[in-house]
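Recap quiz, item 2
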Amino acid sequence: MTSQEPLAALAALARRLRDDPRFMSYVLAAYQEQEGLTDDDFAREIGTLPALVSRLALCKRPDSSSARFAEQVRELADYALIDEARLAGILRQVEALEKLARRPADLSARRLGKRPGYSPTGLLAAARDCNEKSPDDTLHEEERPDSEE
Amino acid sequence: MSSQVNLRQLGERLHQRLLPGSSLTVTSEIAELFLPKLIKSLASEFKDVGDPHLVDMASADALMYYFEHPAKFDPSRSGLFTYLRLLARSRLLNSLGQQKDSEARKKVVELDDPETVDGVAAQTEPDAESALISLDMQETVMRQVGKFITDPVDLKVAALMIASVRDTSEYAAIMGIMDTPVAEQRKLVKRAKDRIKKIFERKIQPRRAR
């Protein structure tokens, strides 16, 4: 017999998609890690059931540059019975982390000859690095030319 | 969604929604419909698998492969369930081969490669494909939702939301507002959806640990 109940099997599939930035699983994992939330904590935080979080995690991620972004967020929020503003906030927070992490991730990927990809852990490490820098460091970095890349 | 749809028809509809990449929920809907059925079907064929997680993993692998390469599935050659089952079976056989589990290996006849599976013409489970399906997972989720939402109309609206129904008229019919102008219907439906989310949130969040 199989090892898991259907809901657990879906949750396990969602966990396997955590490294794929095209899926909501990745977004939710990055957010949970940043906020230090377990799966159950996270479900309570956004006011829904763990089973509905798994459904959400198995969805594709909305494209924030798309003209349909708001509609896409609404579609996902309805599907998981969660507040769309809260979901949009999570998406924005994770996207901000990605922007912080992009440059080092791009560079290391290029050095290793790999396709750029960002694990939630990598995103958070990059975000922490940025947070630890002094305002002066940030200023100097902003002034630097992009030729480093 | 009609209850008279069979697995093959529903698989084809979901596949047509997956192909253009415009639906965000379709991967979840496909997983919810097919993953439990794949696991159940493979588990019944491979009863003697030493590690039952291998069946789950192989079924999940099949779905992930399909999400990555949806165009490789040809609906004119087989139903989606048959296709996914062949993919999952192939991966399971590979895992068993690698595991060198002597008991399980007795069942290994040959290892299908993905190309063979992609080109499948066989109908390995015609009964499964043509059977009228029940949306088991949606029903399971709705049972949980029903603990929090008691109003029968709200519950029906929640069921449509969970089924990823986007058409306002379906909500309007349930809410009895079909005679209302369309713009007003949209507003009322949006309000009903927001109310349901709020009810849900309020009932779940008081138990917050943080």
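Helices of chain A lie at 6-16, 24-35, 39-45, 50-57, 69-80, 84-112, 120-132, 135-143.
Confidence is low (pLDDT under 50) at residues 112-116, 130-149 of chain A.
End of item.
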